[in-house]
Amino acid sequence: METFGIRSTLRHSTLRLESEQPTQFLDMTNEVASLVQSAGIHTGFAHVQSLHTTTAIVVNEHEPLLLADMTLLLDRIAPQRLTYLHDDVTLRTVNCMPGERPNGHSHCRALLLGQSVCLNVAGGRLQLGRWQRLFLVELDGPRSREVSVLLAGDGAR
Length: 157
Prior knowledge:
This protein is α+β, with helices and mostly antiparallel strands and 157 residues long. The protein has helices at residues 29-39, 64-77, 104-113, and strands at residues 2-3, 6-18, 24-27, 43-50, 55-61, 116-122, 125-126, 132-138, 144-156. The protein has a single domain (2-83, 102-156), classed as YjbQ-like (Jelly Rolls), CATH 2.60.120.460. The protein has three helices and nine strands. A hairpin with a 2-residue loop joins strand 6 and strand 7.
């Protein structure tokens, strides 16, 4: 769409990430920033959404001790060692897969964190604070994961 010499952009991409740990914070800030730059968006937004029920999308600081603290917090809130009804395939009647691993704790953790974030784009850049980074939080790894990124905005000609 052309309006007053400004080009409107709507673009979708899928990021593929590999986790290596049961709980892991995967920094994808640079990948999403690169998508914004290649789309030529000057002012708009980047909506980032997990395509999995046992992952989350969050913005926080990329500091190793903090990430360890957050991992420990998730374990205290929804410990893997507890009994979850979801894990009992003799009770469950929907969405059962042969050989699936017990992951009720991962679903409970994801519920608390959220599946998506929407970030502003201004001046052609993601608007993040000094220490903010964008993470896919793996809650049931290791696994291959996909993240949907929808970019929308205007770019100067």
